[in-house]
Design a protein that fits this description.
Length: 436
């Protein structure tokens, strides 16, 4: 029998869990320092007690920036075997979390398979599953129906759930009054908004929040407070609807902590580059340092097909400024359900952003691999360079496809014998430098 209910409860009781010990070692951090941060809510270790194959990670602004990968089937793309391929690829490439956003068919077997086999943190958005699970139209579902789906996901072993608790009936009037350019672009937020509009009732995730907290405490599920009013275009960034919801999420964070339930707070969205850092500062203040989980942010609206780059730009600035968790964005964003190659590109872009931010923040050990890469480049050691690369297979494939005609060992097809590194190595060694 566990002496604690959640990681937060253990930390507050002075107990170092095995998950805390693993995370502390990964982060090159003193165990007691990590325990204190978990107790304060500034680090979340998302670890459902039923996810027994989990390789635990910590999420917090003072730790390495973590990456989440969204997966799942839809009505039009429904091959779960392909989704499992994406999962395996994502874990291989270093993603720390997988969110199953499936919105078609019987979602439970895939969710249970993930929990049984996947060592990464598993997240879901229960409101997506509500219509699917009950096979009934949205307006026929009761508030209790939504709560019971949260319970089912917790029982299945999901480590964190996105719940759009901060959107209330007051938000309906705000959206109508403030005339947003893109209204609500959060899929879960729009479903809650639609349910409230059709039934005249309050948001069930807000009204029954205490009951949901009891469920999360029982299974040690972290709540990721969804930002239903995140901006879906630059014109809506940092507006009244977004900030008012964030204030409510701050209140809900404190209520969760009072139940020993860990919290992450979700953030924007589409934000101009000059507003990204300010958004992070506002969140840290309002939500008392709870880990911030951001989608992007996307810093321009005009890059369909390249939004993994748009998001990486915003993600690097966000993480450098306090975001703890980046939800990857793929080239298929705004266009289609991502395929395996889209997933790969999205992960790489997000990992570059996260790593760049970790270096800027001075995370212990973050720059070590960059220094190794510099040593390998100076020595023109291609194998060592590939070993340091964030995507070794792609780096190797590009070089192998365009090798120089001769002297493969110390040049590439860009500079050949004009290579500055080669010339400097020879000059400093007192050797003749042959160019022609």
């Amino acid at each position: 029998m566990r002496e604690y209910t959640t990681q937060m409860d253990a930390a507050r009781k002075g107990i170092l869990t095995k998950e805390m010990k693993i995370v502390a070692e990964k982060e090159h951090m003193q165990e007691e320092e990590l325990r204190r941060l978990v107790a304060e809510g500034k680090v979340a270790i998302c670890a459902n007690k039923n996810h027994t194959c989990l390789n635990p990670e910590g999420v917090g602004s003072m730790l390495r920036t973590k990456i989440n990968v969204n997966l799942g089937v839809s009505r039009d793309v429904k091959d779960y075997n392909v989704e499992m391929e994406k999962v395996l690829s994502a874990v291989h490439m270093g993603a720390e979390a997988i969110m199953d956003l499936s919105s078609h068919g019987d979602t439970r077997p895939f969710r249970q398979k993930l929990v049984k086999e996947c060592p990464a943190m598993i997240g879901t958005v229960p409101v997506y599953d509500s219509v699917i699970h009950y096979q009934r139209d949205l307006d026929t579902l009761s508030a209790k129906d939504f709560v019971e789906v949260v319970r089912m996901h917790a029982q299945d072993g999901v480590d964190f759930v996105t719940l759009h608790c901060g959107i209330t009936r007051k938000t309906i009037e705000q959206i109508r009054k403030h005339k947003r350019k893109m209204n609500i672009v959060s899929r879960g937020g729009s479903l809650v908004f639609a349910w409230m509009s059709m039934t005249g009732e309050e948001n069930p995730f807000y009204e029954y929040y205490d009951e949901i907290l009891d469920i999360c405490e029982e299974y040690d599920v972290t709540i990721s407070l969804g930002d239903a009013c995140r901006p879906g275009c630059l014109a809506d960034a940092t507006d009244v609807c977004q900030i008012e919801e964030l204030v409510r999420l701050g209140e809900l964070t404190k209520r969760a902590w009072d139940h020993n339930v860990q919290v992450m707070v979700e953030g924007p969205g589409h934000v101009p580059l000059n507003q990204v850092a300010a958004n992070m500062e506002v969140q840290k203040s309002i939500c008392m340092g709870a880990p911030f989980y951001v989608l992007g942010p996307l810093v321009t609206d005009i890059a369909p097909g390249y939004d993994h780059i748009t998001a990486a730009i915003g993600g690097a600035v966000a993480a450098m400024s306090g975001a703890a968790f980046l939800c990857y964005v793929t080239p298929a964003e705004h266009l289609a359900l991502p395929n395996l190659e889209d997933v790969r590109q999205g992960i790489v872009a997000s990992k570059i952003a996260a790593h760049a931010a970790d270096i800027a923040k001075g995370i212990p050990g973050a720059r070590d691999i960059d220094d190794k890469m510099a040593d390998a480049r100076r020595a023109l050691d291609w194998e060592a360079q590939f070993a340091c690369a964030i995507d070794p297979e792609r780096a190797r494939a590009i070089r192998d496809d365009r090798l120089p005609e001769d002297d493969h060992s110390d040049t590439c097809s860009m500079c050949g014998k004009f290579c500055a590194v080669r010339s400097m190595n020879k000059a400093l060694a007192g050797e003749h430098i042959d160019i022609l």
